[in-house]
Amino acid sequence: MSSLSILNLAAVIITLAALFGYINHRWLGLPHAIGILVIALLTSLATIGIDALIPTLELKRSVSDALQNLDFHYVLMEGMLSFLLFAGALHVNINDLLSRKWAIGSMATIGVLTSTFIVGFSIYALSSLLGINISLPYCLVLGALIAPTDPVAVLGILKSVQIPESLKAKIAGESLFNDGVGIVVFIIMVAIATGTGSAGGDPVTTVEVFRIFAQEALGGTAFGLLTGYIAYQAMKSIDEYNLEVLITLALVMITYGVATVLHLSGPIAVVMAGLLIGNKGVRFAMSDTTRNHIQKFWSLIDEIMNSALFLLIGFEIFALSVSGNVITLMIIAIPVILASRLISVSTPLLLLSLRKEFTSGAIPVLTWGGLRGGISVALALSLPESSFKDIILAVTYGVVIFSIIVQGLTVKVVVKHFVR
C-alpha cells in the first residue's frame, strides 16, 4: 500500500470518527465509543442494504476492498494496541493492583484458561449439534481469543461508571493483564490447531507450550520493566516536558516493536512499562508541568485511537460471511461465553473470599463488565486460512457487538443493582 493511500485511509477514518462522534454527542447521547460503534454499524447495514437494492453501485465491494487494504489485524495489533495499553496503564495505581494481586492474577491466568476450555468444549458440542462441525482445536482457538476481556473497551466504560475504587482496580487490572495472557494462550492454541510449533515445523509438545508461555509472558514482563526503567532514569535526569513526552512515545514504540521481534509479549511489556512510568515516574521523575502535559497527551491519544478503533469494529461487518446455522451458533455463543465468564470470575474470587472479604456485587459486576472488543476481532482475522476461519470470525464478531453495545450500555444498571 502506498504512503498516500495510507494517509487517505487515515483521513477517512479520523473524519468519520469525528463526524459520528459529533452526531452521537448532539443527538444520541450514548457513551462516546459505543455511540461511534452504533452509528458505524448502522451505516454499514445501510450500505449493505443499498448495495442489495442497487448492485450497480458496488458500495459493499468498495468498502470491503478498503478494509482489506487497511488490514484491521495489523493496524490494531501492530500499531494502535501498544498506545492504548500504555495510556490505560499510565492511569492505574500500582498500589491498588498490588493490594489485590491475588484476585487480579488469578482472574488473568486461571480465569482465562478456564474460560478458554469452557468456551472451546461448549462450542465444539453446539457446532456438532448444528451440523457445522468445527474441529476441537479450532474451537479452543475461539475460546482463547474470546476469553480475555478487552482493556480498551473495559477502561473506556469505567470512565462513565461510578463504582468503588477496590472493584475498579480489579476490573482495570484484570483487563490489562488478561489481554496479554490471552494473546499468549491464543498463540499456543493456534500452534496446536495448525500442528506446528513456534519454529514452524515441529509438532507442539507440552514442553513447547510451557516454553512459549514462559518466554512470552515472563519475558514480556521483564523487558517492559527494563525499558520502562531506562525511560524513567532519562526523564528523572531532565526537566523539559516536550522532550519527556517524546520519551514516553519512544518508549511505547520501541518496547512493543522489540518485544515482538524477540517473541516476547508486546502487550504485557507495554503494560509493565506504563505502570512503572505512571506510578514511579509520575512521583519521582516529573515536575508538575511535565506530569500535566504527559497525562493530557496520553488522554488525547487514548481518545483518538479509541474512536478510530470502535469505528473500525462497526465497519468490520463487511468481512463476515455467514449462513443460517452460523448465525444460530453466534446467538447461542453469547450466553455460553457469559456463563464461562461467570465461572472463571467466581471460582477464584470465592476461593480467595475464604481469607479476604470482597466488595459486594463483585462477581456480577466483573461478569457483566468483562467486555470483549477489537482485540478479539483482530485475533480472529489473523487466523491462517481454513474452512473454520469465517465461522470463528462471525461468532467472535457477534459476541463483541453484543458485549460492547448491550453489556456496555447496561453495566451501570448492574452496578447500581448489585453494589451496595
Structure description:
With 420 residues, the protein is an all-alpha fold. It has 2 domains: 3-68, no CATH class; 72-418, Na+/H+ antiporter like fold (Up-down Bundle), CATH 1.20.1530. It is built from 17 helices and no strands. α1 packs across α2 (32-53) and α10 (206-236) packs antiparallel against α11 (241-261). The longest helix is centred in the middle third of the chain and has 31 residues, at 206-236. The protein is globular. The termini are far apart. 47% of the residues are buried. The model has no long low-confidence stretch (mean pLDDT 89).
Concise description?
This protein is mainly alpha-helical and 420 residues long. It has 17 helices and no strands.
Layout of helices and strands, plus pairs?
Layout: H1 3-28, H2 32-53, H3 59-70, H4 72-90, H5 94-99, H6 101-129, H7 136-146, H8 151-158, H9 165-194, H10 206-236, H11 241-261, H12 266-284, H13 288-315, H14 324-352, H15 362-368, H16 374-381, H17 389-418
